[in-house]
Amino acid sequence: MFNIGCMYLNLESDLFLQIWNFCELRNLKKNKAYKSLCLNNDGKYVQFLRDLSERNSDLKEYYESIIANGDWESMGLLQDRMFNHPENYDLNDSSIQVLITIHFLTQNDQQKRKDPWTEN
């Protein structure tokens, strides 16, 4: 079976840290804490999103949602924007490719990661 954590081994450690960090996600019903992939608010990816939202005004709300929450946008805003305004998302633009890749890679990880949270 594929281990989602193995996928990140191919990324340079600094690249990973410029995008993500790990945080604790609590499941109150099960009274358990899990490791979750969170946005690194101090990383270069946040600057990348800001710059991209200045070039592409359709991404402004997406960027502002991420900044306001301090974490990834999970309400489907990006998917909705891409579906309803495809002219603003040139799939040949490498910045749009990075945005989509990071967004969906993060969502996939958050759905599949079941690692228990440890303090170390």
Question: Your description of this structure?
Answer:
The protein has a two-stranded antiparallel sheet with strand order 1-2. It has helices spanning 4-7, 13-19, 44-55, 60-69, 77-84, 94-112, and strands at 20-27, 32-39. It is an alpha+beta fold. The model has no long low-confidence stretch (mean pLDDT 87). Strand 1 and strand 2 (32-39) form a beta hairpin. The chain has one domain (12-112). It is globular and about 45 Å long.
Number of helices: 6
Instruction: Please report which band the strand proportion falls in: under 5%, 5-15%, 15-25%, 25-35%, 35-45% or over 45%.
Output: 5-15%
* Major beta sheet, strand line-up: 1-2
Biggest β-sheet: count, sense, barrel?
A: 2 strands, antiparallel
Amino- and carboxy-terminal Cα gap: 26 Å
Indicate how many domains the architecture comprises: 1
The general outline is globular
SSE ordering? HHEEHHHH
What are the segments in which pLDDT stays under 50 over at least 5 consecutive residues? none
The count of β-strands is: 2
The SS-based structural class is alpha+beta
Give helix % range: 40-55%
The radius of gyration is 15 Å
Question: Could you give a short description of this structure?
Answer:
It is built from 6 helices and 2 strands. By secondary structure, the protein is an alpha+beta fold.
